[in-house]
């Protein structure tokens, strides 16, 4: 009798783990978001170090601009500002000297070519601090996800010297930040 009760208890616990709840986006934790931003910076750092013979001093300081909406490069949100802060923090953890610019219009697009360029304000600051590179970022959202693109740009000629793209699920906490 005790074995039957134990077997039923085990079976009920086992089967309760098989119940499916559609939590695809509600289970996206802030730890996953931070981890994805860290992986993006790790990728950018590897690209930069491989281009500069592993000499961190030759690519530092870096300027970090605010991550902006791809549809309107003069707009951002709490989401864009948070990505900016997390990317900056990760570069600092990797021993880069960082300067953050919180300019609304840090990057713009040339209408005739569709190419991203740095604004004159950014170029002026970059020149004054002798920055070797500028990290720019954009994001776009759809119903389910937010797509983030980060690029490291040579400020003297706007050549992209590193890039990383990734997406995060549009969980309720992410959606809230996009609206702020």
Structure description:
With 180 residues, the chain is of the alpha/beta class. The protein has a single domain (28-179), classed as 3-Layer(aba) Sandwich (Rossmann fold). Helix content is 39%, strand content 24%. It has five helices and eight strands, in the order ααββαβββαβββα. Strands 1, 2, 3, 6, 7 and 8 form a six-stranded mixed beta sheet that branches. Strands 4-5 form a two-stranded antiparallel ribbon. A hairpin with a 6-residue loop joins β4 and β5. The N and C termini lie far apart (60 Å).
Outline:
The protein has one domain: Rossmann fold (3-Layer(aba) Sandwich). It has five helices and eight strands, in the order ααββαβββαβββα. The protein has helices spanning 2-16, 30-51, 78-93, 120-129, 172-179, and strands spanning 62-65, 68-69, 98-101, 107-109, 116-118, 133-141, 145-153, 160-169.
Name a few traits of the molecule:
180 residues, six-stranded mixed β-sheet, alpha/beta, globular, 5 helices, Rossmann fold, two-stranded antiparallel sheet
**Secondary structure tally: strands:** 8
Helix content: 25-40%
The 3D shape can be described as globular
Oligomer, anyone?
single chain
Write the layout of secondary structure elements.
Layout (H helix, E strand, L loop, with lengths): L1 H15 L13 H22 L10 E4 L2 E2 L8 H16 L4 E4 L5 E3 L6 E3 L1 H10 L3 E9 L3 E9 L6 E10 L2 H8 L1
Parallel strand pairs: 1-3, 1-6, 2-6
Antiparallel strand pairs: 4-5, 6-7, 7-8
Helix pairs in contact: 2-3
